[in-house]
Amino acid sequence: MHNDEQKYIQISGARENNLKNVSLRIPKQKITIFTGVSGSGKSSIVFDTIAAESARLLNENFSMFVRNFLPRYPKPDTDAIENLSMAVIVDQKRLGGGSHSTMGTITDISPLLRLLFSRIGEPNIGKAHLFSFNDPHGMCPDCSGLGRQMIVDMDKAIDMSKSLLEGAMQLPDYTVDSFDWTMLVQSGPFDTNKKLADYATDELEQLLYGKAKKMAVQFGGKSMNITVEGCIEKFTNKYIKRDLKTMSERTQRAVTPFIIEGGCNSCNGARLSQHTLQSKVNGYNIADMSAMEVGKLITIMESLDSEIAKPIVTSLVERLKHLVEIGLGYLTLDRETDTLSGGESQRVKMVKHLSGSLVDVTYIFDEPSIGLHPRDVNRLNKLLQKLRDKGNTVIVVEHDPDVIQIADHIVDVGPHAGTNGGTIMFEGSYEQLLLSDTLTAKFMKQSMQLKEQVREPIGQLVIANATKHNLQDVTVSIPTGVLTVVTGVAGSGKSTLIHDVFLQQHPEAITIDQSAIGVSTRSNPATYTGIMDDVRKTFATMNKVSPGLFSFNSKGACENCQGLGVVYADVAFLDQVKLPCEICEGKRFKEEVLTYTLHGKSIADVLEMTVEVALSFFTQKEIVRKLQSLSDVGLNYIKLGQPLSTLSGGECQRIKLASELHKQGSIYVMDEPTTGLHMSDVGLIIQIMNRLVDAGNSVIVIEHHLDVISQADWIIDMGPDGGSKGGQVVFEGTPVQMAKAEHSITGKHLEK
Ligand code: ADP
Ligand code: ADP
Ligand code: ZN
Ligand code: ZN
């Protein structure tokens, strides 16, 4: 009996956020998937209860002294959690790390590659560390291993169509009538009336890059000896070669717009010293190999015929194959991690753990299917199973039916969102789930019909000959006045086409993404959408006082907690505790403010209302319109005063959508708007897109979700594969045409 209990993580009486005192058990060394509508409480169980408790337990292993330096984790609101092992969260937070962190370094593949070169590189230059651009002896001395240099942005710095007198120089020190400009114009050798475009090559060279020389000039009626130097040369020496950060803020602001990054002239971006780059394996140096797509690198590794290198090659190939298995075969090892998308970052982290030797770990995944084309979901599934089979417990929050299918155990949270959720609706196997009457089961059994009556476009926006990243001279038209879905496997070039090319040409387009909104801890849905301003005015008019009184950011704020509603008690050697403010009892306002009411409710009561409740309370037109927008995007359940920092990415995205819904004639770009959405909510987001289009807007969506693709007016499918094997438009047309298309991988999945 005792033994059997240890096979489960047992959670009793969990009450974080909206959880209604729930108890459940999660089988160890199995895959458990949490499903349920957005806002039902999945994260509250998995992250705010399980992961939080694990982090807290881990901290308790340290001495009180050390603990003072660690982040502090309050105990989750739960009666007990038993048999928890160390939890590792594999989420979509972008991998930071600056330019010294690359795919190769983060996956620990680069150290192996360096080891390989130190053993069999021809000629052999020495120890493995010499092959690292993070090592002082290996790095290119001219760019310190960055592979890039800061250079003057010539397009901004000079205007070739003007003469010196007309102000051809745009650089801060050379604006007309400045000291340097006057010197330049008066120093003699240059024709000040001639357009720079008409200068002879050597003349221009002297003006821009001429070496410093002393000469006498007439200035203000006096003769002066000065040093004249090419202006780009001078700017480079004066600002770029010095540490800008040590200069005044004013100087930095004036100068930075003229500086851009360019490749390093010495190493051409290879980051390594010339000496290091001489060493080769199979004709390639280590920078060549790092710049190869992983798929190609595997082929080369497998062709190596060396006994000494065999063990290294074996583990290199094993790790590289993990990258391919997870659908990242199109990346290169030298790719900087901060340029990876959220989904890619998550998959890279996964590879790191797969290659590691930790066992009995609880791995927690947050929607790992994000950014993955249906084709690649199978690969993801295999990796999750591999982690489990190594003896780990795998917990996944996921909406994708193809992932849910592989669960050993499923927990469905619901029935709805917010206060209408927070209970366990179902626990059991996949087969049992399908027989249950949960919303999840209902939606898994029904599928969308392909849209047949598509809208006619009102115009076309043309992208011509795009070549950024992997795009292969792409020319494509994006119809306006309709719903366009851009799809294709990961790495095929969707984001490059839309974010890097289309949005550059159409900066007026409105991008709605999932990034967090509201930097301030004081922002909430009411302040973000502007409802709060209207509510304050209404309170002020009814009570004949100033509207400022009803703001917890200013006059109305409780003085004890400055309007935060909580106070932080910092007890030495103990976890920092967040306590509700005892003066305002968490209501954030001064007592006096709360005596003013509207139909019996104080301003604090209003902030506690959900959107749904507020809709039946208010009658003021503007307030109702804004509340209705929130309701229309499925946020009925959120409280007007809930801090934006506590909303999920999907909820943030929908709040942004809600505050845009009344616009017309705009172009909207959305990137995977179904992220974080349960199948039952996807229909809602499609409705919103349709509303935007019907109101006269153009909507462009990057999406893999087949339900969204099936409802498009126009589909652009990128492919055929990722990286250098992608970058082409493989299909353009309607959903019905796509399902019949021969060459489209997406079409095959749509047909199913
Ligand atoms: P899910 O993961 O199923 O989408 P969550 O567990 O994130 O749902 O959220 C459950 C409910 O709790 C939602 O109404 C959400 O807005 C609310 N919530 C989440 N975090 C907080 C928080 N820190 N403070 C207040 N409410 C929160
Ligand atoms: P998708 O959006 O279809 O997943 P992307 O447009 O992100 O594809 O990527 C297309 C190709 O461009 C891939 O080979 C990817 O590695 C490359 N790429 C994307 N962003 C960058 C970047 N910042 N630097 C270098 N290569 C990039
Ligand atoms: Zn260099
Ligand atoms: Zn207070």
Automatic annotation (TrEMBL):
Residues 448-745 form the ABC transporter domain. SUPFAM superfamilies: P-loop containing nucleoside triphosphate hydrolases (SSF52540). InterPro entries: AAA+_ATPase, ABC_transporter-like_ATP-bd, ABC_transporter-like_CS, P-loop_NTPase. Gene3D superfamilies: ABC transporter ATPase domain-like, ABC transporter ATPase like domain, P-loop containing nucleotide triphosphate hydrolases. One of its GO terms (molecular function) is ATP binding. It is found in: Cytoplasm. Its main location: cytoplasm. PROSITE patterns: ABC_TRANSPORTER_1, ABC_TRANSPORTER_2. The keyword Iron-sulfur does not apply. Signal peptide: none annotated. Keywords: ATP-binding, Cytoplasm, DNA damage, DNA excision, DNA repair, DNA-binding, Excision nuclease, Nucleotide-binding, Repeat. It holds the Pfam family ABC_tran. CDD domains: ABC_UvrA_I. Belongs to the ABC transporter superfamily. UvrA family. This is UvrABC system protein A.
